[in-house]
Amino acid sequence: MKKSNPRGRPKRYDREKALDQITQVFWEHGFAATSLDMVSAATSMKRPSLYAAFGDKRAMFLTVQTRFAENLSSDLANILMRPHAPTDVLKDFFKHLIETYTSGPNAPYGCLVFSVGLVEAVTETEVGALIRQVNQSIENDLRSFLERAIKSGALPKAKDTDVLTSLLVALIHSIAVRARSGVKPSSLTDMAERAIHSLLI
Amino acid sequence: MKKSNPRGRPKRYDREKALDQITQVFWEHGFAATSLDMVSAATSMKRPSLYAAFGDKRAMFLTVQTRFAENLSSDLANILMRPHAPTDVLKDFFKHLIETYTSGPNAPYGCLVFSVGLVEAVTETEVGALIRQVNQSIENDLRSFLERAIKSGALPKAKDTDVLTSLLVALIHSIAVRARSGVKPSSLTDMAERAIHSLLI
DNA sequence: CAATTTAATTGCGAAATAGTACAAAAATAA
DNA sequence: TTATTTTTGTACTATTTCGCAATTAAATTG
User: Fold this and answer.
1) Domains in chain B with CATH codes
2) Tens-place pLDDT, residues A116-132
3) CB B111 within 8 A of CB B179
4) B102: Cα within 13 Å, side-chain hemisphere
5) Which chain A residues are within 8 Å of B199, Cβ to Cβ?
6) Is the distance from CB of B94 to CB of B176 less than 8 angstroms?
7) What would the pLDDT profile of B70-100 be if each residue is shown by its tens digit?
8) Smallest CA–C1' separation from A6: which nucleotide?
9) How remote is the C-alpha of B179 from its chain's centroid?
């Protein structure tokens, strides 16, 4: 059952596709260095259409930030639910993270939230709040994962899950920084896997 | 022996003081959101004077980036040379780092290099190179520090210094992210100290 | 005291930028 | 077919921004 067409002239653009394209521009150049003309070019939408669809530049930025955060968080949370050995799960976890941070069309752009958004956190309270919330969410997921692993006997009881969790989150932040600075993905994978082994074995 | 005054009209500004003021502006707002008028207001120098002294906006930014990196790196390197117990030295190390990242005049701005500079790394090769170089330098200093500690018997031989080093660097990056996102300094200190204990004991 | 040198100040001009008013286009509804 | 609704496209305005040319100011040198 397809819903009947809406009243007026149909939209030319696809909302999700447009948001992907907007994301790319902000991801590469950051908030302030991105002009609406660049966004317009990337989406093939004229500025008035952009405004009608997504609000002003600030609103657009907040939208893609939260969207990126939600997608990444949920991907990572799903990986943590897989029924494999903890080290394998964490390897997949960081593999996906690194893939996300390094596979832009032109270059590695790192993390849209932890790198690009972060700069605005000082002047835009909402961005700061989002970042803290994303951290909290990933942190909670990781801690539950580790506690589950200990409960099931897959991980030694002696592990301090709080410290372990914050070190894994630190690893995420570090990968974000290094990815955008141009460190090659294989290096990042190496680092992550060695850290996982050292921390969990 | 004071060197004789130079030929023409004397400069009104003090170069180092001006660079401090320029640093503050970029640190708070990032590169693109900073206008030369803001820099002009912060330094009480008119734009032509700024241009004569520091070149254009991009050159100014590169100057304060490298200056910040050099100052911080050298401070941290010095702390690592102190003849105390490894855990105490590392506590001081992170205490200084957190102090640097959180004690701006208005707010916590995090790291000028790892947060503010990082955004430009994609479009400005030099910034990316600087960041990689700073990471390398701190990493080397930390690794030597750990190797020294093991040699002197202050740290168990079993430690994998490479992994340990990259986890400590990750902790730095994480503190940079969290500081700018608005996490309060005491939380950061807590996290750092617990991580140090867990990693070194 | 002139002449010279260097720095500071004023203010202009060209370009970029964000936002929006208004007209044209493309669909549905009657 | 005509009216209505919604999106798209054009074009304008006000503002910001950068870089620089020309002028004024403050020092040293002879």
Assistant:
1) 61-200 (1.10.357.10)
2) 999 999 999 999 999 99
3) yes
4) 19
5) 167
6) no
7) 999 999 999 999 999 999 999 999 999 999 9
8) C28
9) 13
